[in-house]
Each structure stands twice: as C-alpha cells, then as structure tokens.
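Hi there,

I know you've been waiting on this one. I reran it after we fixed the sequence typo, so this is the corrected version. Both the input and the resulting structure follow.
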Amino acid sequence: MNISSISKETLNRLADQVMEELNRRWEAEHSGPALKTEPAQNAGQAQNAGPAQKTGQQERAGVPELLHGTDRAPEKLLLLGSLPQAELQALQGRYEVVREMTGEWDVLLSAGLSVETMAYVAHGIAATPKAACMLQGLLRGRQICLLEQGMEYFRYKETAPKTVYLLYQNQEKELRRMGIRFLQHSMDLLDEETGTNTCFDMTERDEPDRRCQKPEGPEADLRHLMLLQESEVIRARGMGYRRICLNQKAKITPLALDYLKNHGLTIRRQ
C-alpha cells in the first residue's frame, strides 16, 4: 500500500482505533479507568514534548482517578461478638466491619465481655487474645467500645456476695478511667458526638443523667408504613433522626416501642 495515497482522515481514524484498543487492554489488566485518548491534532505536540512534560503526561495518564480531596476510606470497625442484622447493616453504612483481631482497625466494638477478660484488661494483663487486642488498641490510641448489656458480671448481681460484686464494679470503673467507652446500644457509635462516660452514674443505671441526652434533631418521615418495626427505628436513629413521623393508623410493635423509649426517640402522628 502506498502510504502517500492514504488520506489524513484515514490515518487519524486508524490511530484512534489503536489507542482505543490499548486503553481497553490497560483497563483489563489494571481494573482501572481507561486512558483518555488525545485528539489526533494534538499527537504532534505530544511527540515534540520535552522529557519533563512527557513524564508528567505519562504519570497523569497512568494513575486512575480514584479518591480526591476530602474522599476518605471508611474507618475499620473490629466487631467482637454478634449483633442483630439491622444494627450490623446500619454500622456497615459508616464503617468497614472486620472480624480478625490480628488485622488493622480503628474502632473496636465488643458485644460482650467476660469477667475473666475484664479483670485482665483492668490490670493490664494480656492473658487472652481479646484482652491483648484491647490493650494493644489502647496503647495505639484506638477507640474501644463495650456494650453494657454484654457485661457478664451484671448477671450475678442478685447472687454474688456484695464484696465480690463490688470488686467487679471497681474493675469496670478502671476500664472507664482507661478511656474505654461504654455504650447502651451499638447505634450510639453513629451519633455525631462520641461523648465519654463522665455523665454516667453507676449507682443509677436505669436513670442516666438527663443532661447527657441530645436535643431532638430532624424528623424521619415514615408515614407510608402501616406497621413500625424495631428495624425501621434502628435505621432511622442510625441516620441521625431523633423523631419519627407516622400516619394516624400506623401501629408500633412492642420491640419498636421499647427501642423508642430506651433511646429517647419520639413519635409524631400526622
């Protein structure tokens, strides 16, 4: 074929086809966005560019556009124990939930704590994998959270001798002084204000200080529901709502009603 007889338009079309094929292969190999082809009229400028300019162009072309500016990867939440599916899904909306204690994590949430592990952590003894994980997290400045309902020693309040029960209460206080955060519910992790344990009175567990409660926030519109279930309330609270709007005929399940009362959410009928 006589190259001189090929029109400029045909050459440009062939060049574009070659670039598209190269981009497709690069994307398949690197699982990233395809390279952007330059207009044919700029091909000469790219060839005549100096070494520094070429390097900059190659770097920009070879790096996929992923995260920019304020985009950040979600924090890793190490979950020890099990949670209801609705609560787990709500947490997964903000965190990357992991299960391996040997990996990297930012926040630890323990759904339960045995008297043995509590004693080890309170005395700084890494005698069990869980105690070692929690102590390492404290040393590294990570956030450690425990669900109050999962504290094993609470179960023995009616049977344990007073001196023994007081011993474990003091160990709980020591965990609080270490900076471990005690949560009444896993959804407290989704609150904007992380808060500490300073407002929690251990002698009045059923009556927390009213000054610690957050004011009512925006309202979740659930008027399309005829039956309000606990999972819907958990999801609404996880999104930051403190009040729920229902239609006049909607019914509320007992579990949802208990959750509303325990976490200070209110209902408005319309």
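Quick highlight: Residues 57 and 83 are 50 Å apart (CA to CA).

Best,
R. S.
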